[in-house]
Amino acid sequence: IFANNIKNKNKQIKNSLSRKSINNEKNDKFFLEKLRTVLEKDEIFENEIMKKHTTFELGGPAKFFIKPKSINKIIKVLQLCKEYSIEYFILGNGSNLLVSDKGYDGLVINIHEENFSDLMVEQIDQTNYRITVGGGILMRTLAKRLCLLSLSGLEDIIDIPGTIGGGIIMNASAGLKKKLIYNCLDKVKVITPDGEIKKLSKKNVN
Question: What is the DSSP secondary structure assignment for residue 174, as one 8-state letter?
Fold first, then answer.
């Protein structure tokens, strides 16, 4: 009787896992269909190998990988992730990022230099300027562009890998200049997991 109970229990578990797998496949299919209504064809990739997007060149396939071209598209994608219970990861330049060879069973949102690197310069007074820049720009690119504009203060970030968005999150520093990014930061505009846009002061970012 005990042996039969174990066999029946194992059969129930297998059936349950099978139903769960089928449900997940259906959910992923519906999610992908909705994703295609939000993004263009060249913005969506399936089973994208992550080693192509990390500086260590490590990582298996991400189930979904996208390169959205606007903030509005990111917001719509986050709303879809919430609706279909899809896990997501925000990827910049993939600097110093280790990804398992098994890959990522979710959505990778790539904030990259091609689409999120706008730069705007505003003069505050005779000696100070305010720089507004997209989170996808590489720190070395920003340093070079500011140098061409004869603006100082961020030249030391030229040796830091990664995007300015990632630099803000990790409060990037260079050499003896601790909190380099934080000291130059004024405020940031962020998108919440619920798809809302918020502006945060430096104090709230810390």
Answer: B
For residue 108, pLDDT over 90 is answered with yes
For residue 177, give every residue at least 6 positions away whose Cβ sits within 8 Å of its Cβ, in sequence order, or none: 156, 183
- Pick from 186, 27, 30, 36: which is nearest to 120 by CA? 186
Closest CA relative to residue 166, chosen from 55, 76, 1: 55
What is the per-residue pLDDT for 16? Answer: 47
Q: Which one-letter DSSP state was computed for residue 33?
A: H
Q: What pLDDT, in 10s, does the model give residues 46-72?
A: 999 999 999 999 999 999 999 999 999
CA distance 94 to 90: 10
- pTM for the whole structure: 0.85
How far apart CA 38 and CA 147 sit, in angstroms, is: 38
For 174, half-sphere exposure in the C-beta direction (CA atoms, 13 angstrom radius) is 18
Q: Are 68 and 74 in contact (CB under 8 A)?
A: yes
Which SS3 state, helix, strand or coil, does residue 60 take? coil
The Cα 89–Cα 108 span in angstroms is 5
Q: How far apart are CA 65 and CA 50, in angstroms?
A: 9
Distance CA 132, CA 188 (A): 9
Phi, psi values for residue 91, rounded to 5°: -115, 130
User: What would the mean pLDDT of 97-125 be, rounded to a whole number?
Assistant: 94
Nearest residue to 50 via CA among 129, 103, 107: 103
